[in-house]
Amino acid sequence: MTKFDEATQAIRVDETTYDVCLDPGYSIGGPLNGGYLMAVLLRAVVDASPHEHPVSTTTQFLKAPTPGPARVIVQQLKAGRTAAFTRATLVKDDIAHLEALVTTATLPAEQDVVYTGGPEHLMPPPDDCVRLPDPKPESGMTLNAQMEMRFDPPTIGWLKGEPTGRPEARAHFRMAEPQDPDPFVLALAVDALPPVVFSAGLRGWAPTVDLTWHLRALPAPGWLTLLGGGRLIADGWFDEEVEVWDSAGRLVAQSRQLARVGRG
Amino acid sequence: MTKFDEATQAIRVDETTYDVCLDPGYSIGGPLNGGYLMAVLLRAVVDASPHEHPVSTTTQFLKAPTPGPARVIVQQLKAGRTAAFTRATLVKDDIAHLEALVTTATLPAEQDVVYTGGPEHLMPPPDDCVRLPDPKPESGMTLNAQMEMRFDPPTIGWLKGEPTGRPEARAHFRMAEPQDPDPFVLALAVDALPPVVFSAGLRGWAPTVDLTWHLRALPAPGWLTLLGGGRLIADGWFDEEVEVWDSAGRLVAQSRQLARVGRG
To answer: Cα A96 vs. chain centroid, distance in angstroms?
Structure first.
């Protein structure tokens, strides 16, 4: 069991209740990372489902939870032969923090592809990409230590005052502690990039309002590639789309989140 | 009040309950159209919210309802100054048919754009596009009569056995009964195209499992442009993305649905 597996563990209390413990190691400077929280919630949902994989997850981020013990309440809405529908709530200190709708199904180990588009960007190999500098301990950014990321250089030009002017972020991704990617790692991956609006010249914390992601295939071992973009920044709102490609060149996850532009 | 406004009406019974009547005029040959059902559900959610617009809607399609009286049960999860979060269920004959999570907010009449991408396809004008032939009465496809659509010719090549080989569908869209587009019309619009997989050579009913869409701006009067595509068809699942552009050239809605490939 890796540190990530442990940090996302959900212990069954009864048919609808799971005990979890939110780990301080996934903080983005106070709030916990949304992808990590989704992974915790999905552990409970998948355990409670007759199916094995979370093929579609929508999460509303009602309130940013602090680390510590919490519960996931699951309610089966319908369980069919192909898919099951579950409502799930992450509750801490008696307050709902995340609300989710999850569709589970069982994907085959061998993918049967009728049509696939290709990645819209070709990434330079990891060795030609760059790391972000380690965050200062006082920043409270503990999340960074859990993941290894290598960024496509232009997409972090904003770090030295050279944003590209477009919402974008692209990186190679893997867990810092060696671990083959699985659907829970993908939940972390779809929310692991810096907000794409940084590359459009904006700054400040960009809270996710809701995030939907689809698991399209079980990822092969090795690096994942995260390709992030966005279509519109307006009225204080922006969308962020992330595609996750695995080392076998397959599209394994697609996400879109609606988030608020930071004020900072 | 247009026929569409009437067909989507939600009458408040109490704080959490709305009466609705599902209209047989939105059938796609038996089941009612998912976009129409979302519009009905959103009438109740918006009425119950302190905010005016459904900026994010995720709907799970648990069971296809037949026409007739039904109820929408709404539950406020959190109402903040910027956004409110609501859970909503469409119940008919005591059975949950649609389950949704909706985020409402209030968008300004004048949009303040920081960044916008452009449409990825330039549509020929409506007069150079084509209509679908009227469905036969015995098909039960009553939905088509509610909308006017003009298709980008290659994307309905599948009608005469010439699919493009890619998941795609593009059309100009407006209501048959003159009506300025609003967020409820957009709920219909994001699910109005024929399944994009038809253009990839597949056929048969393609049931939506879940659909998430974001309202990004209040649409200007006039034609809407629907640009539909998809990234992956595999293991019996496909994704369908639709962007809706208004007559002022603005991106007003974005959707992605996960659906099953038809067996027919």
So the answer is: 20
Closest CA to B171 of B138, B126, B222: B126
Question: Average pLDDT of each block of 10 consecutive residues along chain A (264 residues)?
Answer: 97 98 94 97 98 98 96 97 97 98 96 95 96 90 95 96 97 98 98 97 93 98 98 98 98 98 76
- The total of other beta-carbon atoms located within 10 Å of residue B95's CB is 12
SS3 B25: helix
Please tell me if residue B96 touches chain A, with a CB cutoff of 8 Å.
yes
Residues in chain A with CB shorter than 8 Å from the CB of B216 are 232, 234, 237, 239
Predicted ipTM > 0.95: yes
Which domains can be identified in chain A, with CATH numbers? 3-107+121-260 (2.40.160.210)
Residue B60, classified by CB atoms within 10 Å of its CB into exposed (0-12), middle (13-18) or buried (19+), is: buried
**C-alpha–C-alpha distance, residues B176 and B155, integer Å:** 22
Question: How far is B213 from A71, CA to CA, in rounded Å?
Answer: 29
Query: Nearest CA to A149 among A227, A70, A254?
Result: A227
| Distance between B75 CA and the closest CA of chain A, angstroms | 12
Query: What's at A145, amino acid-wise?
Result: A
Q: How far is A171 from chain B (nearest CA, A)?
A: 20
Residues of B in contact with A236 (CB under 8 A): 82
Q: Residue A81 CB: number of other CB atoms within 10 A?
A: 8
| Number of helical (H) and strand (E) elements in chain B, helices listed first | 3, 14
Yes or no, beta carbons of A114 and B239 under 8 Å apart: no
Looking at the complex, does the CB of residue A263 fall below 8 Å from at least one CB of chain B? no
What residues of chain B, 98 to 157, have a C-beta less than 8 Å from chain A?
99-101, 103, 105, 107-108, 111-117
Q: Are A64 and A28 in contact (CB under 8 A)?
A: no
CB contact under 8 A, B258 and A234: no
Our CA angle for A190, B212, B121, nearest 5°, is: 90
- Kindly list the residues from chain A whose CB atom is less than 8 angstroms away from the CB atom of residue B113: 232-234
